[in-house]
Amino acid sequence: MIKAIFLLKRKAGVTHEQFREHYEKSHVKLGQKYLGHLMISYERNYVTQVRGSRSQGRKPVAWEYDCITEWILPNAEALEEVYRIFAIPEIGQEFFDDEGRFLDRDAVIVITCQADDVVNTGTGGGHGVLERGTVAGG
Predict the structure, then answer these.
(1) pTM of this prediction?
(2) Kind of pairing, strands 109-114 and 41-46?
(3) Which CATH architecture has domain 2-52+59-115?
(4) What are the domain boundaries of the chain?
(5) Do residues 34 and 91 make contact, with C-beta atoms less than 8 angstroms apart?
(6) What is the tens place of the pLDDT at every residue in 39-77?
């Protein structure tokens, strides 16, 4: 499994609401059309509030990003296929042009993690994975 995490910021002059609407109604559709068959999951997490830790008094903190997007792909080959598809001039240009309508491309941060780098201990009810093959509460 490969997880790609994108920190995305709207371009100047675009509101958070406009960013979200364009992303969902246009850019996501491009992703589904060209890349959907390669993804296990494609989630967008729109930022509504950012605050500091308890030691910082949980005060609001400066945060420039509007969305944290997560792609989960089955393997490195699927990620390489994404890059190959983006390299097709007509498809790459379609994505590039659409990004120019809502996204600050210079601010994009991409983080990739492989299966061994992702730890999931579950949430609520004690049903998380403790170690490979062992399920908590089960």
Answers:
(1) 0.79
(2) unpaired
(3) 2-Layer Sandwich (3.30)
(4) 2-52+59-115
(5) yes
(6) 999 999 999 888 777 777 777 777 899 999 999 999 999
